[in-house]
């Protein structure tokens, strides 16, 4: 038999698949993988139906349906004051993950260094390694609310530094970038040949009146940035796997070279439907209030448990600390909560290269109120 040399020997099955499968197997409430347990708008489903009936069933243009790219350009201009050319600076992707992979492939050459803040979403590092790049991780800690120490970032920069990956609102920590972070970042990359990959898939899931600091707002940062966004997160339809990437033309030119041979184009009917649906700006402007209500409800419930709640400023996640309750590793404890309490969550050590375990668990609150109540009740009943 032939043998294969793994390109990713350290990589197993993603934690999201593992925990969702376990939750299904043991009948636990699944607050692990981030996705809603309620449906997307019937109007949106109608629009997909209509697009199919109207005959939009063949390949979309490689960069995506023009009407959708136009809507995205309008939205980005309106929200962030940035104009992106729909023809040369916007590409529709098969979800955020494909956009991230494609951007990393377009930028990273062998031995290039990429700065990643950990805990980090688990698709960044494998893509960097597949390109022969080197992950330079900077660990953030719950003790100071996962604040980025920019002096430490500065120390990591050298002439091999090619890319910095940012993610705000952040998965899994639910923190957001603030104006001061933007200032520090701008100072660090100024006059350097460093690019930015900004994972902004939770851009509209931001709470307490905070502002989303998109890279699109800052001309100096924007001209070196790939910005990734997700319609799955926006419209409660993660299974449709449609997102997009924004980048200045010289970067998007390289992105598209890879995109065309990775997916060629994304399913057309959904794109036509979203283009139509986006015309109603309330569909995304109402999201912060919609999710903040869920966050508050879940936090109120969790407050009665023995867990220590960490802040949640954005995304659809709420993390808790439990180190004062048991010495178990977060993975062991997450498995036990899933099996014994009947509530699945994500252990956050999996998002650190070194497996750093701060005894922090991540729960997804993009769920119906009764699901959240049921989960809280199970956690209250759980005997350690
Ligand atoms: N973004 C989702 C989460 O963090 C999962 C995405 C995935 O499963 N690839 O839970």
Features:
pyridoxal phosphate, 40% helix, alpha/beta, binds glutamine, 2 domains, signal, 7-stranded mixed sheet, transferase, Aspartate Aminotransferase, domain 1, 384 residues, PyrdxlP-dep_Trfase_small
Account of the 3D structure:
There is one protein chain. The longest helix is centred in the last third of the chain and has 16 residues, at 287-302. The strands form three sheets. This protein has a seven-stranded mixed sheet, with helices on both faces. The protein folds into two domains: 15-40 and 285-381, Aspartate Aminotransferase, domain 1 (Alpha-Beta Complex); 42-280, 3-Layer(aba) Sandwich (Aspartate Aminotransferase, domain 2). The termini are far apart. It contains 15 helices and 13 strands. The chain is globular, with a radius of gyration of 21 Å. It has helices at residues 15-26, 42-53, 66-80, 95-107, 124-130, 150-156, 179-189, 219-222, 231-234, 249-262, 268-277, 282-285, 287-302, 330-341, 369-381, and strands spanning 29-30, 90-93, 113-118, 134-139, 161-167, 195-199, 225-230, 243-246, 308-309, 317-321, 343-344, 346-347, 360-364. The site of glutamine (GLN) has 5 residues, from loops.
Give a topology summary.
Layout: H1 15-26, E1 29-30, H2 42-53, H3 66-80, E2 90-93, H4 95-107, E3 113-118, H5 124-130, E4 134-139, H6 150-156, E5 161-167, H7 179-189, E6 195-199, H8 219-222, E7 225-230, H9 231-234, E8 243-246, H10 249-262, H11 268-277, H12 282-285, H13 287-302, E9 308-309, E10 317-321, H14 330-341, E11 343-344, E12 346-347, E13 360-364, H15 369-381
Parallel strand pairs: 1-11, 3-4, 3-5, 5-6, 6-7
Antiparallel strand pairs: 2-8, 7-8, 9-10, 10-13, 12-13
The structure holds glutamine.
């Amino acid at each position: 038999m032939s043998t294969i040399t793994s390109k990713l020997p350290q990589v197993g099955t993603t934690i999201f698949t593992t925990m969702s499968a376990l939750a299904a197997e043991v009948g636990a409430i699944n607050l692990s993988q981030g996705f809603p347990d309620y449906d997307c708008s019937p109007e949106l489903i109608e629009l997909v139906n209509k697009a199919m009936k109207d005959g939009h069933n063949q390949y979309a243009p490689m960069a995506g349906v023009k009407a959708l790219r136009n809507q995205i350009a309008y939205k980005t201009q309106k929200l962030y004051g940035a104009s992106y050319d729909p023809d040369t600076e916007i590409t529709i992707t098969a979800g955020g993950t494909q956009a991230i992979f494609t951007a990393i492939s377009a930028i990273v050459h062998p031995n290039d260094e990429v700065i990643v803040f950990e805990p980090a979403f688990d698709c960044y590092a494998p893509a960097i390694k597949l390109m022969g790049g080197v992950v330079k991780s900077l660990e953030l800690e719950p003790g100071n609310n996962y604040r980025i120490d920019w002096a430490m970032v500065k120390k990591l920069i050298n002439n091999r530094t090619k890319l910095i990956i940012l993610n705000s609102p952040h998965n899994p920590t639910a923190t957001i970038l603030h104006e001061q972070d933007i200032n520090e970042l701008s100072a660090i990359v100024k006059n350097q040949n460093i690019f930015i990959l900004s994972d902004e898939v939770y851009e509209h899931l931001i709470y307490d009146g905070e502002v989303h600091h998109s890279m699109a707002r800052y001309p100096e940062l924007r001209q070196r940035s790939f910005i990734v966004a997700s319609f799955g997160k926006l419209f409660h339809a993660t299974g449709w796997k449609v997102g997009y990437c924004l980048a200045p033309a010289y970067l998007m030119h390289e992105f598209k070279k890879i995109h065309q041979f990775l997916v060629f184009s994304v399913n057309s009917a959904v794109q036509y439907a979203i283009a139509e649906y986006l015309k109603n700006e309330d569909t995304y402007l109402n999201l912060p209030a919609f999710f903040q209500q869920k966050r508050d409800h879940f936090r109120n419930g969790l407050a009665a448990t023995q867990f220590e709640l960490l802040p949640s400023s954005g995304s659809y996640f709420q993390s808790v600390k439990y180190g004062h309750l048991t010495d178990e590793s977060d993975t062991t404890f997450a498995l036990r909560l899933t099996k014994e309490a009947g509530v699945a969550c994500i252990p956050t050590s999996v998002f650190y290269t070194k497996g750093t375990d701060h005894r922090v668990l991540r729960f997804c609150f993009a769920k119906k109120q009764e699901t959240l109540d049921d989960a809280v009740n199970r956690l209250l009943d759980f005997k350690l």
